[in-house]
Amino acid sequence: MDTKLYLEIIMHQRIALSGFSFSLMLVLLAGCGGGDTGTTTASRLDLGITDAPVDGADAVWVEFSAIVLQPVDGNRITIPLEDANGNPVTKRINLLDLQGGTRDMLLENQELPSGTYSWMRLMANAQKDGVLDSYITIAGQDFELNAPGSQNTGIKINTPFEITAGDGNDLTIDFDLRKSVHQPKGQHHLGTPVYWLRPTLRLMKTAATGTISGTVDPVVFAGEACDGNTVGYAVYVFSGAGITPIDVDVNDLARNNPVTTAAISDDGNFTYTAAFLNGGTYTVAATCAADQDDPELDNQPGNPQANPVVTFVGTADVNVTAGAETLHPIL
């Protein structure tokens, strides 16, 4: 009996000039094929990519070259990306083209053993080498994305996962660019800003996740210093009930950083969707200063370096049910 494995990546979050974020989703679906041996010898891998609306950037290009998997029992598996004729190629994807559920495939029908895997790595060309392979475009100007080690050791996903024969194996990797892309103040290369890609990832079973979505009434931002700054509109989602919302600071390991963030559309409808949340209770809050959320700085009151202060409104507890969408308007 053969198993087919479908692996897709979905980028669905928001990018802001000082606090980039998006999500990376990997979906692994195993299903039974023909045969009557009673054993499973292989799975098949499909890998796609998609994204959702962002702010502050015209384009975000990432160039992939291979996928590397490490079975618990077995040798490391390297899967180079190939063209229709089986020749190795790189694939550069503009994440901003992949919105509203649109996907672009990295791998299709790739055979691999079923079983337990220790980790996965996405090999990417993202070095500060003067070559625009992975880069971000802001106000019409291109800036390289520099991810140290991405070409040699890959973008690392160190959470173990299982590919079970005959059952659905659906995993999601959340790649949060609000925590992962940094533009260190004062750092330039040949006169241009340096943008660093330091991925922050989380892995979960997709079947155990749900979605929070709704609309945000802009009136909630009345009186905020950022009122009317639609480019900074975002919803932050924190794990647990009754959490005091706070901005992102990746340097504070004890901090209750948001699990994810979601863009609030600036098309006049002011909608948001926070997807791939494990079932449970979350604290949801909105801000109009997400574009000012420096991921390496505490922007809260009391920090003399905070400029400006990232504040939140409309804080509420929301329950998420696996496999379901929870509607939550912020009024």
Written description of the protein model:
By secondary structure, the chain is an all-beta fold. About 0% of the residues lie in helices and about 40% in strands. The strands form seven sheets. Strands 4, 5, 6, 8, 9, 10, 11, 12, 14 and 17 form a ten-stranded mixed β-sheet that branches. The chain has a four-stranded antiparallel β-sheet with strand order 21-20-23-24, with no helix packed on it. Strand 15 (about 190) and strand 16 form a beta hairpin.
Write a concise synopsis of the structure shown.
The protein has 331 residues and is an all-beta fold. 1% of the residues lie in helices and 40% in strands.
Number of domains: 2
Roughly what percent helix? under 10%
Write the H/E string, N to C: EEEEEEEEEEEEEHEEEEEEEEEEEE
Shape: globular
End-to-end C-alpha gap? 53 Å
Spans of at least 5 consecutive residues with low confidence: 1-41, 44-55
Approximate strand percentage: 35-45%
- How many strand segments? 25
What is the residue-mean pLDDT, rounded to a whole number? 76
Based on helices, strands and strand pairing, what is the structural class? mainly beta
Cα radius of gyration in angstroms: 20 Å
Query: What's the total helix number?
Result: 1
Tell me the major beta sheet: 10 strands, mixed
Task: Explain the layout of strands and helices.
Elements: E1 3-6, E2 29-32, E3 43-49, E4 59-71, E5 77-80, E6 91-94, E7 104-112, E8 115-124, E9 135-138, E10 141-146, E11 155-157, E12 161-163, E13 171-175, H1 177-180, E14 181-182, E15 188-189, E16 192-193, E17 195-197, E18 201-205, E19 209-215, E20 234-239, E21 260-263, E22 271-278, E23 280-287, E24 313-320, E25 325-327
Parallel strand pairs: 10-17, 19-25
Antiparallel strand pairs: 1-2, 3-7, 4-5, 4-6, 4-8, 4-9, 8-11, 8-12, 9-10, 13-18, 14-17, 15-16, 19-22, 20-21, 20-23, 23-24
